[in-house]
From TrEMBL:
Domain of life of the source: Bacteria
The protein, known as: Phosphate-binding protein
Family affiliation: Belongs to the PstS family.
Listed GO CC annotations: extracellular region; periplasmic space
Keyword hit for Transport: yes
Length: 260
């Protein structure tokens, strides 16, 4: 499937660890960005070990997944950032041993509705102008971003504050992690964001590249210009060669000690 095309081979290596688990149920939760990769791996794993394991994959966001993992509610958690010190402390407090491994590179896509005929590219500075905390209640229309844009409502969709995607986006675009306006439609489920943008003519949203790739008939990807350079579209190639720069360094999978 297209959604798992970025470094899928790295994720397939995880299945060898799962087979060592003595239990019949393997519970997984965490990042919606990593979900397409892990869902595909889980399907292949259950086919290979048919009847021996049942794998459930939930989506509660990176932060929510770490909370569940460190409380012992799940066996593995997917994350689009490394585990934080306070999350690690919760694992230690509850006697949860773990290892952390890289799974895949990701690309963060910016997209608008296909009926949007005024945006052909955006700069990082323009994205910051849309999303920074100071924009709340002040930047409400497209023509406030660029004079040539129409006087239409700017409707924003993005990852929720419990998401590693949100952490990365705010750091990369605004310059401060967890710093953004609050008056946007937020969700830990990227499919909700995709549908919001697909159904709202004046919308703009951000989400993992896999969700753009799976919904190209519903979305219009936006090339991004960095420091005055030529605008670059997100793709597997541009993410790997570094010309598209909204690329989290690694998406990580955190495993419990029984998976060593």
């Amino acid at each position: 499937m297209k959604a798992v095309s970025i470094l899928m081979s790295a994720a397939l290596g995880v299945t060898a660890s799962w087979s060592a688990m003595a239990q019949q149920m393997v519970r997984i939760d965490g990042s919606s960005t990593v979900f397409p990769i892990i869902e595909a791996v889980a399907e292949e794993f259950q086919i290979e070990y048919r009847g021996n394991y049942r794998v459930t994959v939930g989506v509660s966001g990176t932060g929510g997944g770490f909370k569940k993992f460190c409380r012992g509610e799940v066996d593995l958690t997917n994350a689009s950032r490394p585990i934080r010190n306070e999350e690690m402390a919760l694992c230690v407090e509850n006697g949860i041993d773990f290892i952390e491994m890289p799974v895949a590179l990701d690309a963060l896509a910016i997209a608008v509705n296909p009926r949007n005929d005024w945006v052909d590219y955006l700069t990082i500075a323009e994205l910051k102008k849309m999303w920074e905390p100071e924009a709340q209640g002040r930047i409400n229309n497209w023509n406030q971003i660029r004079e040539s844009f129409p006087d239409r409502a700017l409707e924003l969709f993005g990852a929720g504050a419990d998401s590693g995607t949100y952490d990365y986006f705010t750091q990369a675009v605004v310059g401060r992690e967890h710093a953004s306006r609050g008056d946007f439609t937020a969700s830990e489920d990227d499919n909700v964001l995709v549908m919001g943008v697909a159904n709202t003519t004046s919308a703009l949203g951000f989400f993992g590249f896999a969700y753009l790739d799976e919904n190209r008939n519903k979305l219009k990807p936006i090339p991004i210009s960095y420091q005055g350079g030529a605008p670059v579209l997100p793709s597997i190639e541009t993410a790997k060669n570094g010309t598209y720069q909204l690329v989290p360094a690694f998406v990580r999978l955190c495993q419990c000690g029984c998976c060593r």
